[in-house]
Amino acid sequence: MTGTAAIPPNHAAQLTHADGRVELAPGARPADGPFVNDDLLPVPIARRRWTTYNFTALWVGMAHNIPSWLLASGLVALGMDWKQAVLTIALANVIVLLPMLLTGHAGPKYGIPFPVLARASFGLRGANLPALIRAAVACAWFGIQTWIGGQGIFVLLGAIFGGWAETAEVAGQPWTLWLCFAVFWVVELAIIYRGMETLRRFENWAAPFVIVGALVLLVWIAVKAGGFGPLLDQPSRLGWGEDFWTVFFPSLMGMIAFWSTLSLNIPDFTRFGAGQRAQVWGQSLGLPTTMTLFALLSVFVTSGSQAVYGAPIWDPVQLAAKTDNVFGLLFALVTVLIATISVNIAANVVSPAYDLANLAPRFINFRTGALITGVVGVLIMPWKLTETPELYIFTWLGLVGGLLGTVAGILIADYWIIRRTRLALAELYAPGARYWYTAGWNWRAVTAFAVGGVLAIGGSHSAPGKGPFPADGLIPFLKPLANYGWAVGLAASLLLYTLLMLPQRRAPEPVDDVPSAR
């Protein structure tokens, strides 16, 4: 590779265990420098102990949240029937599982987080480009989810305590709502501040608790409805012809984009895995099955609400607030609290904590990065973002979703095609080594990212008065690609990066492996 400098063998050596997992050899820890801190270094084999259940529980905990519940309702609102909506969600999560398993492979094998894996392709400095894009998305989602969770607590407490919502307003909102938001924010950061082991234990019991809560809601509405109402019998307004496919493909990309963030930074979790089997089976059992079953559950409960109240109530918080049983309200309150904390910490705090640590390892560790995420999540004013979803949530996150697909294509191409899953661990932290390229930047990765990004989001368009883009698209001839942004970005960057890097790969890269005695 160009830009490669020799590193003394004792610094490059790494132990390869019989199961294929790799760790630094004794005495091979990189010297303290601008690209090293304890949170970014490889997790030792002894601390990689997440099992299949841990990964399954992680996904169950992340998938069971209010925005996930509302996915099926959005598709039904577009004209699909419940079968088409559930099919779209199931297919999307099977598709997005594939890049997750591919990028997740580096976690159990090398014990490294996403920004360190990105150094292999983008360079030690260049890795900050994808890391900061991912961190920006996570900070925004953290603020939005925290606001949604605070609103859920506010609504349910209002049903328990009369007059809770009828208080003085501050900045246009009741002060009790601000209190719920602040308390929820503090609880989240308190949990993540205790580290990844605390998160693992929290997800282990949060996952089954949230499942029980959702099933209780299903049983409650079924008893009140005497059945699941007419929604399941309503035909699709789109049919299965051209009208359906016109809506299906953009919707499929939207459902994929829902978890495209985790398809990048899943190594942040799999680096703690006890082996590849644990992360592969855990993710395969946890993601597509949970999202599909949760979509079914939301449809069944919503159809029951239509039978009981005469109109479908898609928001589970609003539905739970209709009960007059105090115990039921308290149970719903705790369920909403745990469900939202579970997804927000795992999906939207862990990643930017590592990404920000990668930006300045000497000054920012994992805990500091988590606190910065929490502060930025408030500064973006999520209460404003949720007021204008067309402009800020769907448009902005749609743009970033296309860019995230572009980054995923580069990571997959570099790790699987160019390097055949072989990395030199110590050199991922060493200026002047093989991943230094030119002044810490790999221009090939940046080029593939730029081209893939333009193809993915260049055709972005908005209906008149509904968004910031021209109706014909930013780049009119790319408009037909806009509805397939994630897939276009991933495929284009993967192909271009591979073509640019192949001339540099004349022979397998030498890696100073030392077989483990264990």
From TrEMBL:
It comes from the Bacteria. It is found in: Membrane. This is NCS1 family nucleobase:cation symporter-1. Belongs to the purine-cytosine permease (2.A.39) family. The chain crosses the membrane at residues 57-78, 84-102, 135-163, 175-193, 205-223, 243-264, 285-309, 329-351, 363-381, 393-418, 439-461, 481-500. It comes from Streptomyces formicae. NCBIfam families: ncs1. The lineage of its organism: Bacteria, Bacillati, Actinomycetota, Actinomycetes, Kitasatosporales. It is a multi-pass membrane protein. Keywords: Membrane, Transmembrane, Transmembrane helix. PANTHER family: NCS1 FAMILY PURINE/PYRIMIDINE TRANSPORTER, PURINE-URACIL PERMEASE NCS1.
